Amino acid sequence: MPSTDTAPSLEPVWASTARALAPALPWSGERAFDVVVVGAGIVGATAARELAARGSRVALVEAADRVGCGVTGQSTAKVTAGHGLRLSQVRAQHGQEAADEYASAAVVGLAYVRKHGADAAEAQLAPAAHDLYCSDREQLGRLIEHVRDATECGLTVEAPALDAALPYPAAYVVRYPDQLLVDPVGYVRHLVDDAVGHGVELLTGVTAHGLGDGRVLRTSAGSLRGEHVLLTTHVPFPVRSLAFALVEQQRHYAVAGTVDAAVAMSYDVSGGWSTRPLPPDPDGSPRALVVGPGHATGRPDPTASMHRLHVWAQSHLDMRVTHAWSTQDAFSTDGLPLVGGVSDHEHVLIATGFGAWGLTLGTAAALDLVHAVVGEPVHATTWSPRRGSLVTHPTTSLRVTARTAANLAGSVAPWSGRQEHRLSPGQGTVVRERGEHVAVSRDADGVVRAVSARCTHLRCLVAWNAEASTWDCECHGSRFAPDGRVLHGPATEPLEDRAVPADNPETD
User: How far is the C-alpha of 58 from the C-alpha of 213, rounded, in Å?
Assistant: First the structure.
């Protein structure tokens, strides 16, 4: 089985295109803008750029010191209207109007990226077909039905496609022609540069901690007031939005490297395997990226999932892996994104739940947020965060609630965890010390860190993710660095520091 001579990079393949920005300096008093946008990923960058182009005074708040390196920069970076069988699922569950809006939104998002990435060298925009296929015959009927659904929703599909460069023979192939590949970090950086050129004030290294009277955003650098506040982080943090309970965060694993032959942009509706070509390496060898099936954040076993992906990529594509990382996606209760006003606070708007297809759907959602702010009709009326189907189709929220209840119940039960914390480099565990759960980890250099094991969102216990060296919360998907820093919301506060426990913590 082929392998690389050195360990693969644990950053996404396009992370090297990011550039560090100086963090914003703290300010005194309360700064006022027309619109405050939280999160400089695909949704936030697009919305900020469009609002500023319309004359709004906009602040764009980003917790990292590099834009586009969060969820957007960890993605597969396919810009396509072919979202697996999602359109067919939307049509079956919500009807023709919702399916038409979904398909149209995907087309709108694709067109916007094509237009705004065309003149940006850093976006590395490239045309490509997207092939949906089934690797076994069990999904054959559903894939054939999908052709009917897509055609009746106005999408252009070709079936069967017989010349696809797929990892192995397929029972049936559906092709979406004239789709796009993009460097997501370069593209978002271009959007942000364009937004700044239109007058947007970019505040990097600034974390959001909460909303005051609904229009005042409390941050690590000071308070910001906006006539509208757009929460375009992966999962919006306000408890009143209930977004954390209406979406399930899932981890997916990605590898990239050199391969022996060109690979198509494809998605296997049978097994969940997703491939896309990458620009060749400096020697001219073809490269590819593969993403595998996912699991709920905080659930075991990340290491097994990554190993399975390595085996698949090497056995099917003869890949020499150079990069390996994980992504995080939000899947809504009823299969549609959540975009629009939160409860009766129409000046606070959210966007989440794109189900792993955020480059097109997130772009369309950003444009709808802009329409809502300026008082124009929104495109996707079925995407409201207050729609009834979020309650009438509760599968996801029930699953999330059940995990939360089990986690909280288990955390007050008699302690049955590990009795010691003599950890090897790269390991972490939760122990009980003086009646409190403490998360202890040891990094590659042997440094031991200890933080509270209680997620700062709703107090669930976190678990160690050995593949990413993070503390993950299975309840609502928050993730933390070993030192407690927030990596993914809905949590906004870090895990508190704790003293490294003694060798024999309490065991009840």
Answer: 19
Architecture of domain 394-508: 3-layer Sandwich (2.102)
The verdict on pTM exceeding 0.70 is yes
Domain ranges of the chain: 394-508
- Tell me whether the omega of the peptide bond preceding residue 160 falls within 30 degrees of 0, making it cis: yes
- Which residue do the tokens 């759960």 mark? 437
With a CB cutoff of 8 Å and minimum separation 6, the contacts of 54 are 370, 374
The answer to whether 15 touches 185, Cβ cutoff 8 Å, is yes
Please give the Cα distance from 192 to 203 (Å, whole number).
Answer: 11
pLDDT band at 328 (very low <50, low <70, confident <90, very high): confident
Residue 382's SS3 state is helix
Q: How far is CA 27 from CA 17, 31, 33, 208, 221, in A?
A: 30, 8, 14, 14, 6
pLDDT mean across residues, the chain = 86
User: Using CA atoms, how far apart are residues 420 and 415, in angstroms rounded to an integer?
Assistant: 13
3-state SS class at 473 = strand
The partner residues of 229 in beta bridges, in order of sequence, read 36, 348
The span from the CA of 465 to the CA of 84, in Å, is 28
Q: How far apart are CA 388 and CA 34, in angstroms?
A: 31
Cα–Cα separations (whole angstroms), residue 366 to 212, 219, 230: 24, 22, 10
Cα 169 from Cα 166, distance rounded (Å) = 7
Q: State the sign of the Cα–Cα–Cα–Cα dihedral 370, 189, 186, 316.
A: negative
* Residue in the structure block whose two tokens are 């559903």: 142
